[in-house]
User: Which sequence fits this backbone?
């Protein structure tokens, strides 16, 4: 998709969304949008702050219970700016559907650095932010995002991996590289290890509508 001064001049698809069936991509084809999801999570935090339900200066323990030192000093701002240092890079964390078990892992594994001491891009920090969104909003993360952002932005086809599986005919299939060429890849997981960090499923038009919503 390309737009000039707000006017869409190109919106189409290229290549194949299913190599075995030789099905071509279209503008409406849905892709897992990976870390674009983080922009929704960050916007949710700021929206909740504007409503007085949290402050980015709040300690994360306000919403998620006690954390051991030095993690007890981490704030929502630290999480949003990838400076919380809660988890050593590469640590194997629980990635299932149980939020409490994921948070228990976050609390128990060694800290990488004191909050605010260094920058480290991390999915885990944004998963913790998603848990804070749920606590502050008092509703499931996906439901909040849909009600507050996807619906008002007109992102009608967009959703999350838990709602739009790869078997949905609108989705592009996932492939991995191999010496023999592309091979089918396992579907992305959607547990608490990635919630809030990845998992948005959307078309290119949906992403553009989100850009317009943010700019507006």
Assistant:
């Amino acid at each position: 998709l390309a737009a000039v001064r707000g006017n869409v001049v190109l919106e189409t698809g290229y290549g194949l969304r299913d190599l075995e069936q030789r099905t071509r991509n279209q503008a409406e084809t849905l892709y897992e949008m990976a870390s674009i999801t983080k922009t929704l999570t960050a916007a949710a935090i700021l929206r909740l702050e504007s409503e007085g339900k949290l402050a980015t200066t709040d300690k994360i323990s306000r919403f998620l219970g006690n954390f051991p030192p030095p993690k007890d000093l981490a704030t929502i701002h630290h999480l949003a700016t990838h400076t919380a240092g809660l988890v050593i890079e590469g640590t194997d964390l629980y990635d299932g559907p149980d939020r409490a078990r994921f948070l228990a892992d976050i609390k128990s594994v060694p800290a990488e650095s004191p909050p605010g001491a260094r920058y480290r891009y991390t999915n885990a920090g944004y998963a913790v932010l998603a848990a804070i969104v749920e606590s502050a909003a008092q509703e499931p993360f996906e439901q909040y995002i849909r009600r507050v952002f996807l619906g008002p932005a007109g992102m009608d086809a967009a959703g999350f991996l838990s709602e739009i599986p790869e078997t949905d005919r609108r989705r592009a299939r996932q492939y991995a590289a191999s010496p023999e060429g592309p091979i089918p890849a396992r579907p992305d997981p959607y547990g608490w290890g990635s919630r809030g960090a990845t998992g948005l499923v959307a078309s290119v038009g949906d992403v553009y509508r989100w850009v317009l919503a943010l700019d507006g």
Notes: The chain has a mean pLDDT of 96. The longest strand covers residues 7-10.
